[in-house]
Amino acid sequence: MVTPVLSLSSKSQNHSKKTLTPFAFRCRQQHQLLAVIFSLCVIFLIFYHASNHVDMVLLQKEVHEKIYPLPDGSQDYNLLYSNSTKTSSFAGFSFYLMGDTPYRDWQETRLEWQVKQMKQYTKNHPERNLTFTVHVGDIQKVSLTHCAESAYQTTANLLRQGPLPTLVVPGDNDYYDCPDRNATFQLFMKYFGSFEKQWHKKDVEGLGLIRSESHPELFVFVKEGILLIGLHLINAPESHEDIRLWNARMIANKEWVAKNVQHYFRTQEIRGVILLGHALRSPRTRPFFLTVADYFVNITHRQDLPVVYLHGDGHNWDVDTKLSHQLHWKHFRDIQVDQGGLADPVIVEFAPQIKGKLKAFKDESSDLQLVLGKGLIRLDRQNGLYKHPKNVKNLLK
Ligand SMILES: *[C@@H]1O[C@H](CO)[C@@H](O)[C@H](O)[C@H]1NC(C)=O
Ligand SMILES: *[C@@H]1O[C@H](CO)[C@@H](O)[C@H](O)[C@H]1NC(C)=O
Ligand SMILES: *[C@@H]1O[C@H](CO)[C@@H](O)[C@H](O)[C@H]1NC(C)=O
Ligand SMILES: *[C@@H]1O[C@H](CO)[C@@H](O)[C@H](O)[C@H]1NC(C)=O
């Protein structure tokens, strides 16, 4: 579009040299210069408007790009090697689960006490085979800490006293609600981005944990046929963030799940899937779960496996089955843990399997016990909510 304007002006320039006086020539030149500037302005405005229009479209519509790889269960280990999977054995194991703590001084004391209890319990109950701890995000209360580095340090110091390698997924309080999101996300990563390495090498290597290269807060590992996937799910109202950043994060989460489900279902026998994230169920995170569903629902040998999303954010124990009903995804559950300062950590336990036979947990479901996946998974809330959570004065004596 620029070329015609320039060639036009140079043509008339040649012409003007012959016929015009120097003064008139300068005038003509000025006019032409103005014309060129004007044309450039018009072109710029057209492009500016067009690019703004693209921005508007992007802002209005969440992008659902095709993610790689697509769901395909035809090469799955469980399908191709069903002969051997009928006789395979797995040990039982369990892990501690907590979230949304510490929010207050008394919760720091509470956490210190919980960690001490966990240390003793792990040692005294080898039969439960406690192997790691997961904190599902929000390691501080932004209005109290203002996201100072010392808050990250305090929680890291408390959790580091724990008996087991500890994995922390990011919550909104960990950077999103902070004054400087990028700087505080760096802080979160500094303290928790590879937190598990604070424990004994032998214990960490036993997990076989892999972190994403481009998004190291995302992790994955397989333990005794259970695929565990760490996510970066934040509940953010629309308009609180540039939609492009939101989309990029959603795509990273979806790809991480897709890639790992496809890979691990192909290479080994998977008995169940645990998704670990912060955000509670909401219309904004729904597209993520719809994508995850594509990798299980309608794939016969996958849709019978339990898939459980464990998270915090809402601060009270809740077992949600809405998505399960809506999508006819029988074995999907969305489970929210109590706020960590108010209740015992949950013990998430997996039943052993001996020569193809699951030693299923008895379904003695109660307020404090939940058995899922035909007895493969048990969530034990221990003593549940504390009667007097703030009463921490004599806890550490
Ligand atoms: C399963 O076992 C049967 C009988 O031994 C055999 O014919 C078949 O090829 C096996 N299938 C696979 C996928 O190994
Ligand atoms: C505990 O889990 C580990 C790792 O999965 C496994 O190797 C071991 O056999 C289990 N121990 C018991 C007592 O089940
Ligand atoms: C924060 O990081 C994102 C990419 O992760 C970038 O697009 C954005 O411009 C950054 N914001 C600031 C204020 O640096
Ligand atoms: C599963 O298949 C049914 C019937 O073909 C279809 O209506 C449904 O949308 C599918 N669900 C998913 C999550 O793909």
Largest sheet: 7 strands, mixed
Q: Please report the total strand number as a whole number.
A: 15
How big is the Rg? Answer: 29 Å
- In which range does the helix fraction lie? 40-55%
Total discrete domains? 2
Shape: globular
CATH topology of the largest domain: Purple Acid Phosphatase, chain A, domain 2
Cα distance, first to last residue?
80 Å
CATH class bucket of the largest domain: Alpha Beta
Please report the number of helical segments. Answer: 13
Strand order of the largest sheet: 4-5-6-7-8-10-9
Low-pLDDT parts are 1-24, 53-60
CATH architecture of the largest domain: 4-Layer Sandwich
What features would you highlight for this structure?
Purple Acid Phosphatase, chain A, domain 2; transmembrane; 13 helices; membrane; 6-stranded mixed β-sheet; disordered N terminus; Calcineurin-like phosphoesterase domain-containing protein; about 400 residues; 7-stranded mixed β-sheet; alpha/beta; about 40% helix; 2 domains; binds 2-acetamido-2-deoxy-beta-D-glucopyranose
Write structural notes for this entry.
- A hairpin with a 4-residue loop joins strand 14 and strand 15.
- The longest helix has 39 residues, at 22-60.
- This protein folds into 2 domains: 21-53; 70-380, Purple Acid Phosphatase, chain A, domain 2 (4-Layer Sandwich).
- It has 13 helices and 15 strands.
- It starts with a helix and ends in a 17-residue tail after the last strand.
- With 397 residues, it is of the alpha/beta class.
- Residues 1-24 and 53-60 have low confidence and may be disordered.
- It has a 7-stranded mixed sheet.
- Bound molecules: 2-acetamido-2-deoxy-beta-D-glucopyranose (NAG) (4 copies).
- One 2-acetamido-2-deoxy-beta-D-glucopyranose is lined by residues 293-294, 297-298, 327.
- Keywords: Membrane, Transmembrane, Transmembrane helix.
- This is Calcineurin-like phosphoesterase domain-containing protein.
- The chain crosses the membrane at residues 33-51.
